[in-house]
Amino acid sequence: MNTGALRALLESMPEPVFSIDMKGKVELANPAALALFALNEDKIRNQTAGQLIGGYNFSRWLENEHAAPHSERVVIRSQDFLMDITPIHLEDENQQPDVVGAVVMLKSTARMGRQLQNLSVNDDTEFDHIVAVSPKMRQVLEQARKLAMLDAPLLIVGDTGTGKDILARACHLRSPRGKQPFLALNCAALPDDVAESELFGHAAGAYPGAGAAKKGFFRAGQRRLGAAGRDWRNVAADADQAAALPE
After folding, report:
1. For the structural domain made of 3-116, what CATH number should be given?
2. How many helices (H) and strands (E) does the chain have?
3. Could you tell me which of 51, 95, 103, 233 has the fewest CB atoms within 10 Å of its CB?
């Protein structure tokens, strides 16, 4: 890889990265590293890795003929970083790998924490609270675990008292929206006109007592990026069920 391609690669990386020679002196540094140390390219080349990052003996590591990749927690400008130092090998005259320097990458632990939180598996513990003995029910739970990860509406059908709400809540907590509110509404307990108002909202003065406009259940769920659960099949008015289809 030529120098231009290497520089382009370094500049594309969000983490601070720089290379050092066998004396520990900085050779190349990407913009993130320059920003972290508040130095321009010329000034950072006059620095050694030990001057930039205290508490780690770069010279001893470089002098080790069997230098291996190493990770170390370091503090730079009151910020915690995980430092990855990787040897650069080139073949010598005997075509044997020889250490000629190293690449140092600094990963912000705060940024890593946010990334891990975003990538971590969503809460699956709610499924553990559902007792399933029969092969059929176990199959339902296995399918629900998979379907919960899809960004799409999920219809759960079952007789009264079979635990649809519990399963819906478990799917929500496992879904990409699991950290957002789960909104539940039992249409069987509401008159048709009230259910319609709760589901779709109403304007101010739409009916006696409606002093202020109210967002519907579906809109509230979308705004919060959470889930809207409702128990209504065979109990909600046909008009309400038909109106919900576009939602």
Report:
1. 3.30.450.20
2. 12, 9
3. 95
